[in-house]
Amino acid sequence: MLAPLVFTAIDLKGVSYAFGQHRVLHDIDLHIAAGSVVALLGPSGCGKSTLLRLLAGLTPPEAGEIHFGERLVAKAGWSLPPEARDIGMVFQDYALWPHMTVAQNVAFPLKMRNVPRRERDARVVQALTRVGLAEFLDRKPSGLSGGQQQRVALARAIVAEPRVLLFDEPLSNLDSELRESLCLEMAGLLRQLGTTAIYVTHDRREAEILADRIVHLSAGSVAVDRLVTSSSGEFA
Ligand SMILES: Nc1ncnc2c1ncn2[C@@H]1O[C@H](COP(=O)(O)OP(=O)(O)OP(=O)(O)O)[C@@H](O)[C@H]1O
Ligand SMILES: [Mg+2]
Known about the structure:
Layout lengths: L9 E10 L2 E11 L4 E5 L6 H9 L6 E6 L2 E5 L2 E2 L7 E5 L10 H11 L4 H14 L15 H13 L5 E5 L7 H18 L2 E6 L2 H7 L2 E6 L2 E7 L9
Bound molecules: adenosine-5'-triphosphate (ATP) and magnesium ion.
The site of adenosine-5'-triphosphate has 12 residues, from strand 2 and helix 1.
InterPro entries: AAA+_ATPase, ABC_SmlMolc_Importer, ABC_transporter-like_ATP-bd, ABC_transporter-like_CS, ABC_transpr_FbpC, P-loop_NTPase
Enzyme class: hydrolase
Protein name: ATP-binding component of an ABC superfamily glycerol-3-phosphate transporter
């Protein structure tokens, strides 16, 4: 059995990061409430993906600390690896395994957690039903549209009911009509799940629809940090 769903606050304290001599994140302090959806917004190159990679455990910070709830997950030069963090991730490029079927792709996080076969199968169907793809279990990703592939990636991210969901511009490869409809669907799904989520985008409207709070990064620092009001999240 998987552990019951526990929402997790995230704390970044004085987090900095540099690529060699090039400092890209400067002393970031952020408290993200358990169960909230925070959009990270900002122009290209401002450090959004770098911050997400630190949250995912793909790279350690140069300075500062990151906590998931009570747990220290990263400090200067050290980082708990992604598989030990109980997170789900969705990237711009779907990152599905082409040789696996849809069901095998979605089952992967459950396999990693040693969930027994029967429970795994039920959860895969449940996750794919949530994203409207239950009938595509045996397809390969190459037999799906871009939007469908991104739904599979979303199902894979949520199937193990992780404590934290991380998104890096998941809709930016899709055409604008599809982007709008999937954005609204994802907003509904995130509300249902109640999981703490960080959503990177450079699209303000997407951020307003999906998030409770928008953090604007500018050149590696927090420039604006604001709550989203219910009236702001409308596609024009
Ligand atoms: N592997 C790397 N080596 C050196 N510099 C890098 C590397 N990856 C990113 N950078 C630099 O770090 C800065 C932040 O990059 P990052 O990818 O976090 O930006 P971003 O806000 O996600 O941008 P985008 O909206 O274009 O995805 C940029 O100046 C970028 O050029
Ligand atoms: Mg990026």
